[in-house]
TrEMBL record:
The species this protein was found in: Flavobacterium hibernum
Claim: Membrane is one of the keywords in the record: yes
Subcellular location: Cell membrane
Topology versus the membrane: Multi-pass membrane protein
Listed InterPro entries: DUF3817_TM
Domain of life per record: Bacteria
Protein name stated in the entry: Membrane protein
Pfam families tied to this protein: DUF3817 (PF12823)
KW Transmembrane (keyword) present: yes
Amino acid sequence: MLKIFKVTAILEGISYLVLFTNMLFIKTNNPELYHTLLRPLGMTHGVLFIGYVILAFLLKKPQNWDLKTFAIIQIASLIPFGTFYVEKKYLENNA
């Protein structure tokens, strides 16, 4: 399950950055393309985000994460590039 969490963390981080790119750059340059991409990108990111959070809860006990580590892992899902940091720092040596 840890391998699935690692993949989900990376994909969630990528989807977050793609969603921001869509919101910041495409919206101003091409509003029609923005509205076409918003729904599928938003849905994909939402599913990956929920998967990330659920998998983190499921792995908390087996990985023996203390409250501080678990909080960092959860907060990282809200910060751009945060899931990449988590994957590198907390998950790299464990899988």
